[in-house]
Amino acid sequence: MKSHIKDVPLRDVQNLLDNRGIDIQKVGIKNVDVPLIIQRKGQDNQVVYATAQICASLDSNFKGTHMSRFMEILNEWREKELLGVDIKGCLEAIQQKLGANSAQVKFVFKYFIEKEAPVSTNFFWVQKFL
């Protein structure tokens, strides 16, 4: 059976100039589940399962952005051993790759630390909410 759909390449509209003069404060992705490796001082790394939200500003001279670029950045950074300093590097990567003036990243996850009970001196895991 012959298809009536023409093989026409889609225009890359996100890079087209926009003359409306409207800055967009936030454009991005949210509720993306991803494993992260968290460095712990003096201990083994801990793998946590996080829900991520990444967004960036969009300058008034751009029509849009490729949402897949957010996923590319997330995939690059999820394999790194994260510390607070590395989150700053992730933000800089978002800004650079998307040509954005500002960026935000949010990871929500459960983090456990080992604590010693004061009386029994037994060790147990305590959940920290981050």
Structure write-up:
The chain has 130 residues and is α+β, with helices and mostly antiparallel strands. The protein has a single domain, classed as Urate Oxidase (Roll), CATH 3.10.270.10. 21% of the residues lie in helices and 38% in strands. The protein has two helices and six strands; from the N terminus they run ββαβαβββ. A hairpin with a 7-residue loop joins strand 1 (24-38) and strand 2. The longest helix is centred in the C-terminal third of the chain and has 15 residues, at 84-98. The model has no long low-confidence stretch (mean pLDDT 80).
Please render the helix and strand layout as text.
Blueprint: E1 24-38, E2 46-58, H1 67-78, E3 81-82, H2 84-98, E4 103-108, E5 110-116, E6 123-129
Parallel strand pairs: 1-3
Antiparallel strand pairs: 1-2, 2-4, 5-6
Helix pairs in contact: 1-2
Distance between the termini: 56 Å
The helix/strand class is: alpha+beta
Order of helices and strands: EEHEHEEE
The level 1 CATH classification is Alpha Beta
How many distinct helices?
Answer: 2
> What number of domains?
1
CATH topology: Urate Oxidase
Whole-number mean pLDDT: 80
Strand content: 35-45%
Q: How many extended strands?
A: 6
Q: Major beta sheet, specifics? A: 4 strands, mixed
Please, what is the CATH homologous superfamily? Urate Oxidase
Q: Can you list the strand order of the major beta sheet? A: 3-1-2-4
The CATH architecture name reads Roll
Quaternary status = single chain
Low-confidence stretches: none
Indicate the percent of residues in helices: 10-25%
